[in-house]
Amino acid sequence: LWSLGYSARLLKTNRCRTAASNTSFPAVWMLLAEYSGRIPGPFVVVKKNSFFTMPETAEDKSDTELYSPHPEVRGMKVLNREAFKRTIVVPVLKVKKEIVNTMLKSLKHTVLQRPGLKRVMEDPEDEDSRLVILDPHKIPEFSLGESEQEVLKKLNVLPEVSKYNLELTYENFKSEEILRAVLPEGQDVTSGFSRVGHIAHFNLRDHQLPYRHLIGQVIIDKNPGITCVVNKTSIIDSTYRNFQMEVLAGESNLVTKVKENNIMYELDFSKVYWNPRLSTEHSRIVELLKPGDVLFDVFAGIGPFAIPAAKKKCHVFANDLNPESYSWLLHNCKLNKVDSKIKVFNMDGRDFLLGPVREELSKEVPLLKGEQKTYHIVMNLPALAIEFLDVFKHLLVGEPCGTAGLPTVHCYGFSKHDDPAKDIQERAEASLGTSLAGRCSTYLVRNVAPNKEMLCISFQIPADVLYKRPCPEEGKGQASCVALGFQAMPS
């Protein structure tokens, strides 16, 4: 029931409110099947993608006001940790040390729960007692409520709340609290980044740039394992899919290791494309494959589709134009012990489709009459991939052996249209020269920027697009072929 309700909500989210309100029981199951990737359909399925946020975020306004660094840090551009010291007054209870743990359990909703701050402190006046810090928001008047007093009475603890001067230092503040205190008041605070191994990757806004080196150092201080922080300084190059970046803090080593879906990859982040926000999409496509299937990865990068597919015992042909990506793809194939299962190419995507892909399909497809083999073509270059779809027009010569042998294409694209699914489908149809109505599914991968979506359109290449049929009347000349609607093949 939860799954049915979730699917209906997904449908409603994607501008199909009328359809959702009238969805019959079988229709909902069709949507569930489409969500699992098993059948094509006309719907867009929303999939949320996660990325690294600062692991410590302020809970509410009152919490922010209480746990704010010293106001003099406003405008700081060079990090001075000592300047963040501040003393706040908090409520405490004096408790015999032997019953501290019992009291913490009994008053768990009243005791201070802030990460990084000790809840129990030594009592400077009595070595047999401890001072337990209470949550200032729960005890605003430094007096306990009746329920708390009843608990303490059972524990033979005097329900007398004292005031304690608690010193907060740079180490006690959360990343967001530090940056909110430093950046100009009212400005957006950077709260999220992509993590690539030991590297934290930011896309800072203009008003944050004067503070970029401080931001970088704070991120290193507050996130164990991060030793380098970079900021993107240019848009992604559509040819090699890399971008210029500036090291904000830490070491300048941009060769890193990442683990995605239990597979290890190594890469130079400054020279190849890697986006940790696509891990779910990589997994989604690989889950569609079965052992023995053939995968052609046209823009393979360092192998996030190709390598897990090879591990699944698929036959893989992987290509990338970027020489650096090609080199790291070879490296990662060896690293994951699939170098004998993947044929790797360093070609333009169009040449790869017209060469190795066409050659393999021409060789294999005629043999499919007695066996079923599924072909998948992944085209993950969202800025340009749809423009490559015209390559499939009459890519093969002959007669199709049935729809089972027709390759399934998974093509990615960006859209700023009000209806991105419709936009992507229409652009794909324009490149292919045919309608895909009822023959494709469109999947919303992620939101790239405000009003900019990344989508994947999946479809089997129609036979009348993929195949160039030989003229059955070759001996009677060109005129008879034209009359029959065929194009004469050169001898």
UniProtKB/TrEMBL annotation:
InterPro entries: MeTrfase_TRM5/TYW2, SAM-dependent_MTases_sf, TRM5-TYW2-like_MTfase, TRM5/TYW2-like_N, tRNA_Gua_MeTrfase_euk. CDD domains: AdoMet_MTases (cd02440). Keywords: Cytoplasm, Methyltransferase, Mitochondrion, Nucleus, S-adenosyl-L-methionine, Transferase, tRNA processing. GO terms for cellular component: mitochondrial matrix. It comes from Ceuthmochares aereus. Pfam families: TRM5-TYW2_MTfase, TYW2_N_2. Belongs to the class I-like SAM-binding methyltransferase superfamily. TRM5/TYW2 family. Involved in mitochondrial tRNA methylation. Specifically methylates the N1 position of guanosine-37 in various tRNAs. Methylation is not dependent on the nature of the nucleoside 5' of the target nucleoside. This is the first step in the biosynthesis of wybutosine (yW), a modified base adjacent to the anticodon of tRNAs and required for accurate decoding. It comes from the Eukaryota. This is TRM5 methyltransferase. Residues 193-463 form the SAM-dependent methyltransferase TRM5/TYW2-type domain. GO terms for molecular function: tRNA (guanine(37)-N1)-methyltransferase activity. GO terms for biological process: mitochondrial tRNA methylation; tRNA N1-guanine methylation. It catalyses: guanosine(37) in tRNA + S-adenosyl-L-methionine = N(1)-methylguanosine(37) in tRNA + S-adenosyl-L-homocysteine + H(+).
